[in-house]
């Protein structure tokens, strides 16, 4: 089976929020480091400030590492590619795949994840879908993958993405 890859394009809101959050967080880190290095203070205070500057910097790096980059459909299943490594959902664990209307995501609560810095990803929950994992970089073109753990994705060309998964599942007798 050939691998079919779909980009995960950023929408304008994500570009703006990532840019603003990166500037604010990065600026705060830079100001903290500058203060620690240029202000007379006890060594322990300098070390504390420098360590404190690492926490938000690590948050930016962590968000970038877990953000969805692209999605693919391969013989292994659906793959969500991230810098830290892919998330793979084997076809055997998928019961259904459908386009998802954005209204069905209203009222979602983020249990653990990120919204607005390199994407929207992590564990979410709402009354309609229940608990689900989200890997999105846009605010439309949602796909719901019903599996052991429901997955919501925003691949480029969502209709083609759904059709490709359904075709692979039919070929596997599912």
Notes on the structure:
The chain is α+β, with helices and mostly antiparallel strands and 174 residues long. It is 37% helix and 31% strand. It has two domains: 12-66; 70-171, no CATH class. It contains three helices and ten strands. The strands form two sheets. It has a six-stranded mixed beta sheet, covered by helices on one side. A four-stranded antiparallel beta sheet has the order 1-2-3-4, covered by helices on one side. Strand 7 (120-126) and strand 8 form a beta hairpin. The longest helix has 27 residues, at 12-38.
Order of secondary-structure elements: EHHEEEEEEEEEH
Cα separation of the termini: 16 Å
Q: Summarize the amount of helix as a percent range.
A: 25-40%
Give the radius of gyration: 20 Å
Q: Please tell me the total number of domains.
A: 2
How many strand segments? 10
Largest beta-sheet characterization: 6 strands, mixed
Query: How much strand content do the residues show?
Result: 25-35%
- Structural class of the secondary structure composition? alpha+beta
Given as residue ranges, the uncertain stretches (5+ residues, pLDDT < 50) are none
Number of helices: 3
Which descriptor suits the 3D outline?
A: elongated
Mean pLDDT rating:
93
Strand neighbour order, sheet with most strands: 5-9-10-8-7-6
Oligomeric organization of the protein chains: single chain
């Amino acid at each position: 089976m050939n691998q079919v890859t779909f980009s995960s394009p950023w929408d304008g809101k994500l570009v703006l929020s990532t840019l603003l959050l990166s500037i604010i967080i990065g600026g705060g880190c830079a100001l903290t480091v500058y203060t620690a290095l240029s202000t007379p203070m006890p060594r322990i205070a300098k070390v504390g400030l420098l360590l404190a500057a690492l926490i938000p910097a690590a948050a930016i790096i962590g968000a970038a590492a877990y953000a969805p980059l692209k999605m693919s459909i391969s013989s292994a299943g659906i793959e969500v590619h991230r810098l830290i490594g892919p998330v793979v959902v084997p076809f055997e664990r998928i019961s259904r795949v459908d386009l998802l209307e954005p209204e069905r995501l209203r009222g979602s609560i983020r249990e653990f994840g990120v919204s607005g810095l390199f994407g929207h990803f992590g564990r979410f929950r709402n009354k309609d879908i229940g608990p689900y994992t989200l890997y999105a970089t846009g605010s439309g073109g949602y796909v719901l993958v019903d599996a052991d753990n429901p997955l919501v994705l925003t691949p480029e060309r969502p209709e083609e993405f759904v059709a490709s998964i359904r075709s692979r599942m039919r070929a596997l007798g599912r």
